[in-house]
Amino acid sequence: MGENDDRHPPEGRGCEKELLSVTGAIYRAVIDTGTDPVFVKDSSFRLVMANQGFADFTGYRQEEILGKDDFDLFRKEEAAEYRKNDREAFSSGKEVEAEEEYTDSHGVTHTVLVKKRPYVDSEGNRFLVGLARDITELKTAQTLLRRSEERFRSIFENAAAGMATISPDGELTAVNPAFCRMLGYSVEELLGLTVRDITHPEDRKRTAQFLRDAARGKTAVFREEKRYLRRDGSAVWGLTTAAFQCDEKGRPISGVALVQEITHLKKSEEAVRRLAYYDSLTDLPNRALLMERLRHNLYQAERDGRKVGLLYFDLDYFKKINDTLGHHTGDLLLKAAAGRLRECVRRSDTAARIGGDEFVVVLPNLPSEHDVAAAAGHILDTMSRPFHLNGREVFTSASMGIAIFPDDGSKERALLKNADRAMYEAKEKGRNQFRFFSGEINERVERRAVLENELRQTLVREKAWAAIRQVGEEKEFPGPAGGEGELFLHYQPQIELLSGEISCMEALVRWQHPRRGLVTTTEFIEAAEETGLILNLGEWILRRVCSQNRAWQNRGLPCRRLATNLSRAQISQPGVTDLLDRVLGETGLDARWLEIELTEKILQDYSPGFVSTLEKIRNRGVRISVDDFGTGYSSLRHLREYPLDRFKIAQELVRRLPADGDAAAVVETVIAMARGLGIRVVAEGVESRGQLEFLRARGCQEVQGYYFARPLSAEAMAFFLERNGEGNLTCPYRAG
């Protein structure tokens, strides 16, 4: 080929045109492959190029689009907005970015983010290159997020409880007005402070641990009652719930804390605790607090291999002083004796008044019996010095019994009993001295063992008696209680004040011993609990309760709940729910007509497993109540977690109503607390009109006591049920 061969363009020119052609084709292919709309307009705003994405977006074919302007393709008001943005891009000579609304053929409006850039080619022609992206879903998400943030902000700002946002290291990043009011700070003063800065020193450790755990991804939620420091340095209680938002790796990003002030609740709780745990006259710990501390001391001593000394004493001739000089002087003597006792004990010791003129001192971490003897002698010397009361000298002394753990007992109750027995030996020996628990005193313990053995045999006979009753041969196995065995039940009704109807009946076990006669319930129940016989006895009572209630229902008597006590040992048995199911199934009693009573002391030893068992029992339809409420102390925090239906105010409180101010305060507090927890209240031991009216006026819903009926036999209770079913509350068993 020669240089002038016409079939070959000059070198460079043809290659350039071919390259441009190829490049343009590539660009066009890339543009058409993309899903985002791409378009080019000329200076008269007509489309000279549009990719397939633009065609798909508008619903037209590509060849139909070319040569048209926005007013040909879109709604007038939308096209006008597009034209406005086009003009701005041409006039400014710069890229314009705008959000434009577009309505498709289905009437659905889209939000499109469009970038328009002016372009001038080599011949001076002006074009507008546009790239669009449908951001409808993004805008919807942004709108939802904004609304959510607005709602959160509204809640945050207007919430009655304190709210704050915190950084992962505990710095306050936002606070609401309620939180500021609670702590007495302004918003500006709180921002930048840390959670530690506003937390009471005694509560900082738990909060710091939460922040460390959150930083390691161990926990993201914190719930605790804690104290905060106000700006003036005073403390305020808050129920705090804090939660951290974490990233995909579990690392905290930010947290939100909700703080509800509970200072008034804590003060009420402390007031109840004070009333329940401290003697109102001497301000010494009472029996409830003594038992709690003693239990803790024994646990530590058993763990560490140490001994614990228990001193039990009363004031000699106190009754004579009280009778001759008056109760006021007697009270002054008790207060003065308590003051001296405080001076005799260490900070680690517990000195308590457990009733009347009886005092107990617990000496933990006891090195030897010589130390307990020295402490006892010091107390006796102190009490024997004359007391100056109301301008006169009063002389008394003390008689003291001493028991040592573990030598004289491994449980609190046993130690107290043995020390009490030793005290009476000291009195018999001449008073103003102390005696250690000895083998001679053990004779009384042996008598208790005999009682326990007899109770065991009685339970065996009762099992046989129950079997014989089932086959209808009662005449061949007569019992001492009108066709019953040695053990039998009495029933005492509980009256619903609003309707006057029987709401429930409490079953009370009795033991008619063939030789001893009627054994006190306290005596044989304590023996049963100490030996484990309470499990067999409890099952026997449960069966009799369910059988009797079903028998009443079969006679057509009104259906009412029947309540029976269960001990902690019974409920802690793994098969307690199976036992309930079995007894209810065998007797045919619906679970809703059974109620389980627990003593308040049982609730003091909180455990999630115990709560879970109670929930399983309650889920079967069985009601749960707390007996003798107000004599011990239950933490409000844990009390809320128990599945409870009723509080039964203790008889010892009700019997002091309405004259005793301390008892009245405790009863009013219990009723108010129960109302707040949605729990009904029953008052035990109602014996007078005055007690009844006091309780009615304060919102007590149910009552039980001699004012309405004494404990009744099964037949007498059936008569009472029948009369009450006729709407007649008055019956021959009503006291007075």
Helix/strand class: alpha+beta
Q: Compute the gyration radius: what is it?
A: 42 Å
Morphology call:
elongated
Major beta sheet, specifics? 8 strands, mixed, barrel
What's the tally of helices? Answer: 27
- Please list the strands of the largest sheet in the order they lie side by side: 18-19-21-22-23-24-25-26
| CATH homologous superfamily designation of the largest domain | EAL domain
- Contiguous uncertain segments of 5+ residues: 1-14, 471-483, 730-736
Instruction: Give the termini distance in whole angstroms.
Output: 143 Å
Strand content: 15-25%
CATH fold node name of the largest domain: TIM Barrel
Number of domains: 4
- CATH architecture field of the largest domain: Alpha-Beta Barrel
User: What portion of residues is helical?
Assistant: 40-55%
Q: Which CATH first-tier class of the largest domain would you pick?
A: Alpha Beta
Report what the structure shows.
The chain is an alpha+beta fold and 736 residues long. It is built from 27 helices and 26 strands. The protein has an eight-stranded mixed barrel, surrounded by five helices. It has a five-stranded antiparallel sheet with strand order 2-1-5-4-3, with helices on both faces. A five-stranded antiparallel sheet has the order 7-6-10-9-8, sandwiched between helices. Helix 12 crosses helix 13 (327-344), helix 13 (327-344) runs antiparallel to helix 14 (369-384) and helix 18 (534-554) packs parallel to helix 20. The longest helix has 29 residues, at 442-470. The radius of gyration is 42 Å and the shape is elongated. The relative contact order is 0.05.
